Amino acid sequence: MTLAAFTRMRFAPQIVGFGSLLLAILAFEILIRVGLLNRFIVPMPSQIAGAFERVIFEEQIAERFYLTMKECVSAAALLAVFGVAIGTLLYKVNILRRATETWVAAAAAAPTVLMYPLFLVIFGRSALTIIMMGFVAGLPAVILKTIEGLSGTKRVLLNVGRSFKLTPWQMFWKIQFPSALPTIFTGFKLGLIFALINVVGVEFLINFGGLGQLINDLAERYDLAGTYAAICFVILVSVVFFIVVERAERWLTRAA
Amino acid sequence: MPAATALRPESARERGDILEVKDVTKRFPTPEGAVTAVDDVSLSVRQGEFLAIIGPSGCGKSTLFNIVGGLLGDYEGEVSVAGERITGPHPSVGMVFQEESTFPWRTVLENVGFPLEIEGKPKAQRHDKARHFIKMVGLDGFENRYPNELSGGMRQRVSLARTLASEPKILLMDEPFAALDEQTRLLLGDKVLQIQQELKQTTLLITHNITEAVQLSDRIMVMTYRPGKIKRVVDIDLPRPRTSEVVGSDAFGHYVAQIWADLREEASRGMSDDESRARATGTRRK
């Protein structure tokens, strides 16, 4: 089969992607075995694979996976509801938008994870602290992209709405919001990245359940292979999450 | 010299006019002072008539389109539809825009059914009616496609069907085929002629394309370059029903030449004006 014929195959991108991952794993295995990478810092992929069974059966991974997933879903739900609502409010109230947009943009770049002691005081050492930390970290991205999406509605589409005498409510739900949805989803995905990092990060910092705490425990026991195996589960949470969000985006942008 | 007018001498009721534009002037404020885009324009369109407004770029055609469509206010004069003065968008006036205006998140069927959805028609009823207009513009079989799966010409036909679905008394079209190639434009012209014939649809077309204007219209109103006034009104006495084959006739060529003679002077003025402004901007930058 020629290269051109292979690239036209339906599953070629998946085959290339999976193949590249396997090659990278193999490369790490070789580099560690020949001593080019320090095996006391980076465990061999074969050791990590061997640690999966232990992590799954001895460390209650399913329970921890479920807790981290639950915290992420809760933070995502808050982001979708409040992020889009605040973004819409700022878009509609021009003075409020001009007064706060710079602050919101600055907040997007702020290392909010450092505020975890404050959140601990407010919400206690509970899942709520972790959810709120994830939510606050992702909020600016969703707000900013909601404003951008709504402001970017094509003038001609608004004129179509005006020519059909749409009420302001219809104009928003039938034209502006669906037109802004792709941009809002970009912000939502960005917000989710920040939220996910913060959820696992705060679990790690406050040693409260979930995959973050497991990584902390295993690292403190100097179980490097187990630590990396647990990190693989964090990646799995991220992958599952983004697959779901992408499907929702495809469905919503079509159905909107 | 008094301004030319596209109003006929009898009263509106006697003429059977459905649209009347009377002494309309529109000025836009600019840092250099007010610019008159449309100056004392009067015109009338009778039921079932196809009127084209042609003029060079910057003559205020689109301003007039927006005024008649109710999208632009704060002008002098008055616009009335079937004797009723309009002050904003009016259900009797349907608009087809120059830019691509289909909703990309809706299928062809949902796009065309949009005005019916706004009217609160039940789903089955609006789908039936939407299918009727989709068929009319020749897009049957594409009901479940999204706009990004269609060509530019097909997307403009979706916009046209969507506007027709609202059953307007007057169809306003602002250079709807401007972004299309010449062949597609002629063929879509055929489609518009066929629809106009079938629905007896009163239509006001804004265009800068002489061929398109002559192919489609009963009357053509030629506008001057800024400020936009009516320079001349030409009655097109070509037989109906018409198709794009009419472009090969002697009479068609005669009308095109006649209108170009009027337009040429205005287009040249526009070009010189653009060049002077570009020079002035360049001088200021230096």
Fraction in helix of chain B: 25-40%
CATH superfamily of the largest domain in chain A: MetI-like
Work out the strand percent of chain B.
Answer: 15-25%
The CATH class label of the largest domain in chain A is Mainly Alpha
Order of helices and strands of chain A: HHHHHHHHHHH
Distance between termini of chain A?
43 Å
Structure, described:
The complex is a heterodimer of chains A (about 260) and B (about 290). Chain A is an all-alpha fold. Chain A folds into 2 domains: about 5-40, no CATH class; about 60-255, MetI-like fold. Chain A is built from 11 helices and no strands. In chain A, α3 (about 45-60) packs across α11 (about 225-255), α8 (about 155-165) packs across α9 (about 170-205) and α9 (about 170-205) packs antiparallel against α11 (about 225-255). In chain A, about 35% of the residues are buried. Chain B is an alpha/beta fold and about 290 residues long. In chain B, β7 (about 170-175), α7 (about 180-200) and β8 form a beta-alpha-beta unit. In chain B, α5 packs across α6 and α8 (about 210-215) runs antiparallel to α9 (about 250-285). Chain B is globular. Chain B starts with 11 loop residues before the first helix and ends with a helix. Chains A and B meet through α8, α9 and α11 of A and β6 and α4 of B.
Helix and strand arrangement:
The complex is a heterodimer of chains A (256) and B (286).
Chain A: H1 3-8, H2 12-33, H3 45-58, H4 61-92, H5 94-109, H6 116-123, H7 127-151, H8 155-163, H9 168-206, H10 210-220, H11 224-255
Helix pairs in contact in A: 3-11, 4-5, 4-7, 4-9, 4-10, 4-11, 5-7, 6-7, 7-9, 8-9, 9-10, 9-11, 10-11
Chain B: H1 12-15, E1 17-28, E2 35-46, E3 50-54, H2 61-68, E4 76-81, E5 84-85, E6 93-96, H3 108-112, H4 114-118, H5 123-136, H6 152-165, E7 170-174, H7 182-199, E8 202-207, H8 210-216, E9 219-223, E10 230-235, H9 250-285
Parallel strand pairs in B: 3-8, 3-9, 6-7, 7-8
Antiparallel strand pairs in B: 1-2, 1-4, 4-5, 9-10
Helix pairs in contact in B: 5-6, 8-9
